Amino acid sequence: MKMFRGKKVLGAIAFAAALFSSTAIMSTALSSSAMAWTLEEAAQPYKGTSIKAIFLDRPGYAAAIKLLPEFEKKTGIKVNYEIVPYENSRERQVLDFTGGGEIDVVLTDVVWIGEFAGNGWLEPVKTFTDDAKLADPKLKLDGFFPILLESFGTWGDEVYGLPFDNYSGLLYYNKCTLQQAGFDKPPATWDELLNVYGPKLTDQANRKYAFALQSRRGETQSADSFMRVLWPFGGSLLDDKFKSNLNSKESQAGLKFRQDLMKIMPPGIVDYDHAEAVNALAQGNVAMITEWSAFYSTLADPTKSRITDCLAVATEPAGPAGLKPALGGFSLGVNAQSSDAKKAAAWLFIQWVTSEEMAKPYVEAGGVSGRTTIYKDADIQKRYPFVQPMVASWDGGVPDFRPRFAEWPELSEVIAEWGTRMMLGNVSIEDGAKSIGAKVEEVLGQAGYYKGDKPLRK
């Protein structure tokens, strides 16, 4: 009996040894395979292929353009790009999708993902990650900030794009101006910004203002202005049943606060887009702005900004509901209607430009990477003061800062129209909120959200 047990033990040991040896061989083979993968080899079948991307006139895209020659040299793939104003970029792509056009690299805003993925215009990332010839073993989807991959690249349970040009709302301020007014730090809350800092930093006679909130009619009004003041005050556009929440006590408090900000902002603020708000701070005409992290490189550029030595960055101010900063950004995905060769070439570009390997060159060229590792780099933290407040915002941000569903573009137009009327004083906050809410519910009702035809969240 003992001998039998001994034979069993020896047999088990032999089996484990064989299994270990087999596993080691497989592991070595896989490791060798992973080490053998190169961008150059993966791109060889697509050498000479031309693809087209949609870019914006923003620092992150200028950074990508600076890096493009390296990709083209390694792969032989030509990346053409069209620079489109943000306000026209969705329409430009939708026309391309419905007309069977030429765009291969799709730029998807956080609020377009439902429309683009829901209509089958985006190729699932799985198509490429399942292909060993195209998938870089070092891709690491879990290397992106979860809030970014979820918000900008994912619809349902499927990933359709990789985070590329991603933003947190930050407070940029002129520390010299604040110091001259007696402040040694930025406002911690929105209430402080308005009621403590605002009066001391506003000098209308000399056209100097405490703050500028970009509010031009369009997506800038609906997202960067209107939505920005809801969450910190505990409000929201919709409740958990997708009914309007704009006339709640909290939402009304946020919208009223925005109206009160008008007295410390420049005249004509409803015509300010991002460029105007950034320039107002850069030229010393306003002391503070809440803007996207991507604009740090513009404000830190001495050829574009007069306040480079005085520029400082913090998280957005907190409201009664706590720190609820704006969340924005884009992913890059592949057009599902492109040819197989162009799909592969587009994927290789997207995978490369958003990779961990390219994160540091991208940041140094003026972009904002969605990768976590790059922001642990002590050198990057020291050179780019926006990093720490941005990471703090992403770690505790607002995933549904704007609702991610296909109907958003239509709702955005409604919010932009009535939001502008509110700021101009052409309609009361209460009546404007009721008008927006009624139209929102009409649109969502027609889309089937209240009949159970569509899920409330994706």
**CATH C-level class of the largest domain:** Alpha Beta
Strand content: 5-15%
Query: Mean pLDDT across all residues, rounded?
Result: 90
Q: Indicate the radius of gyration in whole angstroms.
A: 25 Å
How many helices? Answer: 19
Secondary structure class reads: alpha+beta
**Helix-strand pattern, N to C?**
HHEHEHEHEHHEEEHHEHHHEHEEHHHHHH
Care to give the gist of this entry?
This is Sugar ABC transporter. This protein is an alpha+beta fold.
Layout of SSEs?
Blueprint (H helix, E strand, L loop, with lengths): L1 H35 L2 H5 L6 E6 L3 H17 L2 E6 L2 H14 L5 E5 L3 H6 L3 E2 L2 H4 L16 H8 E2 L2 E2 L2 E13 H6 L9 H12 L7 E4 L6 H8 L22 H13 L12 H9 L3 E7 L3 H4 L11 E5 L11 E9 L4 H14 L2 H9 L13 H6 L3 H9 L12 H17 L4 H18 L12
Parallel strand pairs: 1-2, 8-9
Antiparallel strand pairs: 3-11, 4-11, 5-6, 7-9, 7-10, 7-11
Distinctive features:
458 residues; alpha+beta; D-Maltodextrin-Binding Protein, domain 2; 2 domains; two-stranded parallel ribbon; globular; Sugar ABC transporter; Bact_solute-bd_prot1; SBP; signal; transport
Polypeptide structure, described:
This protein folds into two domains: 41-167 and 328-395, 3-Layer(aba) Sandwich (D-Maltodextrin-Binding Protein, domain 2), CATH 3.40.190; 168-326 and 402-446, D-Maltodextrin-Binding Protein, domain 2, CATH 3.40.190. 47% of the residues lie in helices and 13% in strands. The chain is built from 19 helices and eleven strands. It has helices spanning 2-36, 39-43, 59-75, 86-99, 113-118, 126-129, 146-153, 175-180, 190-201, 219-226, 249-261, 274-282, 296-299, 340-353, 356-364, 378-383, 387-395, 408-424, 429-446, and strands spanning 50-55, 78-83, 105-109, 122-123, 154-155, 158-159, 162-174, 209-212, 286-292, 311-315, 327-335. The strands form three sheets. Strands 3, 4, 7, 8, 9, 10 and 11 form a seven-stranded mixed sheet that branches. Strands 1-2 form a two-stranded parallel sheet. Helix 3 crosses helix 15 (356-364) and helix 10 (219-226) crosses helix 18 (408-424).
